[in-house]
């Protein structure tokens, strides 16, 4: 009989995973403790903006034309426990308030709520990003609380999806990593991922700690790569070099590679910043803190970029923001997402506002989330309207529509034709030829 799958937690990870599992042919039941989210998902609406997700939901949630009806949602752990053979835990693990460590309360609560309903053999699969050592602890807890006892088994299967590409990354993962303690668990996970495995996705089988570490190691590497190129940008600024050319040139070396070498205002979002901090905290607990002290530097290079962007803008408008209007293009932490968690763009906008400028923000998808987080900033319904009367236009999230902006279209709106590119994604020639002053981080003035 086909496996029945449940997905606990329906955020970016869980909502996408649930829809993808239905797409792979399984009967799926998604759970969230927030009834509003369940109502939205049951109506075929994604609780966040993620390209292709809503279409995928509507192909499988009952009630839509041609839908398979394989994907349903609930708030009941009892229903989930009865329904599933495999339970994916996809709840959030945010940074603890005032600490570097990760807050495990949602994962712990999910296991504690699910376990008492596991009356027959079941595999619980953790996907959340957790500190190394968590899986072993949770496996023991599961066996202790589940009526099925040792037949309620745990596996760890980290998720590497990128926001903006979540659907594609989930359906066609570049690798599948499973931390297991039995052949049965491995076999079940091979069955779940049969389709991507047949397409050639590599399958890496490990123990629990390695599976947990793969995720934090991957994110630390990516964060380090971005901070490396941003450190080079600082040196370029001091020496009148061009970090974009430098990245292009070193990227030709296959050992280095071209990706994740875009200098700018740095990384943000719900993953990289909190994951590297939680990793440092955990290493400290394990007595291995020295191994990760470099991540402190990675973090501070990254945070410095935001302040640097503010300075560049202040200098560009004549040394003070008082009485100046600043247009900010982009509020989300990256394009093709509505996520503003730890967004470098909003951080820069907020700092400039606090220094006395009138800041007007436009973002294609992140306006509601941005307004909720920074209600004191002004918001405009388009790039053109945000640019009205601006003494400087700041490009802070590299949405495609900003790259395609015609400088001539903004000419009549702005007070001064001055564009600052915080993402090194615009074409300097195009803006300069149109009579604008173009400045970017890590690039020569002219
Ligand atoms: C990341 C990991 O890529 C993913 O594998 C993991 O599962 C979750 O965390 P995500 O948070 O969606 O995914 O964003 P990512 O595409 O990695 O970008 C992170 C940040 O780095 C963004 O703010 C982005 O603008 C920035 N970035 C990325 C750069 O500043 N320069 C680059 O060259 C690349």
Characterise this structure:
With 446 residues, this protein is an alpha/beta fold. It folds into two domains: 4-206, Rossmann fold (3-Layer(aba) Sandwich), CATH 3.40.50.720; 207-446, Rossmann fold, CATH 3.40.50. Helices cover 44% and strands 13% of the residues. The chain has 19 helices and 14 strands. A six-stranded parallel sheet has the order 3-2-1-4-5-6, with helices on both faces. It has a six-stranded parallel sheet with strand order 11-10-9-12-13-14. The protein has a two-stranded parallel sheet with strand order 7-8. α19 (428-433) links the parallel β13 and β14. α1 (12-23) packs across α3, α10 (208-239) crosses α11 and α12 (272-285) runs antiparallel to α13. The longest helix is centred in the middle third of the chain and has 32 residues, at 208-239. The radius of gyration is 24 Å and the shape is globular. The model has no long low-confidence stretch (mean pLDDT 97). Residues 159-163, 219, 222, 226, 260-262, 264, 266-269, 271-272, 333-334 line the site of uridine-5'-diphosphate-xylopyranose. Uridine-5'-diphosphate-xylopyranose (UDX) binds at residues 159-163, 219, 222, 226, 260-262, 264, 266-269, 271-272, 333-334.
């Amino acid at each position: 009989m086909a496996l029945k799958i449940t997905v606990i937690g329906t955020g970016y990870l869980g909502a996408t995973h649930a829809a993808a599992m239905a797409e792979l042919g399984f009967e799926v039941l998604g759970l969230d403790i927030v009834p509003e989210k369940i109502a939205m998902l049951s109506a075929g609406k994604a609780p966040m903006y993620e390209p292709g997700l809503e279409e995928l939901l509507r192909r499988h949630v009952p009630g839509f034309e041609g839908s398979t009806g394989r994907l349903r949602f609930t708030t009941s752990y009892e229903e989930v426990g009865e329904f599933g053979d495999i339970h994916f835990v996809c709840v959030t693990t945010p940074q603890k308030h005032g600490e570097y460590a990760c807050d495990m309360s949602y994962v712990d609560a999910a296991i504690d709520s699910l376990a008492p309903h596991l009356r027959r053999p079941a595999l619980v699969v953790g996907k959340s990003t957790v500190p190394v050592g968590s899986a072993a602890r949770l496996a023991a807890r599961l066996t202790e609380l589940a009526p099925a006892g040792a037949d309620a088994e745990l596996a760890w299967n980290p998720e590497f999806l990128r926001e903006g590409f979540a659907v594609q990354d989930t359906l066609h993962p570049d690798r599948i990593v499973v931390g297991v303690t039995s052949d049965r668990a491995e076999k079940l996970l091979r069955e779940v991922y049969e389709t991507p495995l047949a397409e050639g996705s590599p399958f890496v089988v490990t123990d629990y700690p390695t599976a947990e570490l793969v995720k934090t190691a991957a994110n630390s590497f990516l964060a380090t790569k971005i901070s490396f190129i941003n450190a080079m940008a600082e040196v370029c600024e001091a020496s009148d070099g061009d970090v974009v050319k430098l990245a292009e040139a070193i990227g030709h070396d296959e050992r280095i590679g071209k990706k994740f070498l875009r200098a700018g205002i740095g990384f943000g979002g719900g993953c990289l910043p909190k994951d590297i901090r939680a990793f440092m905290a955990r290493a400290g607990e394990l007595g291995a803190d020295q191994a990760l002290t470099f991540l402190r530097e990675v973090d501070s290079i990254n945070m410095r970029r935001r302040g640097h962007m503010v300075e560049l803008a202040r200098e560009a408008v004549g040394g003070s923001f008082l009485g100046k209007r600043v247009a900010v293009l982009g509020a989300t932490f990256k394009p093709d997402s509505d996520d503003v968690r730890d967004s470098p763009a909003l951080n820069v906008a907020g700092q400039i506002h606090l220094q006395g400028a009138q800041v007007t923000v436009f973002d294609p998808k992140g306006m509601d989330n941005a307004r909720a987080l920074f209600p004191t900033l002004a918001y405009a319904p388009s790039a053109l309207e945000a640019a009205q009367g601006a003494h400087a236009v700041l490009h802070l999230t590299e949405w495609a529509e900003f790259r395609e902006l015609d400088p001539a279209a903004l000419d009549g709106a702005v007070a001064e034709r001055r564009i600052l590119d915080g993402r090194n994604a615009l074409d300097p020639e195009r803006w300069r030829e149109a009579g604008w002053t173009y400045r970017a981080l890590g690039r020569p003035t002219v």
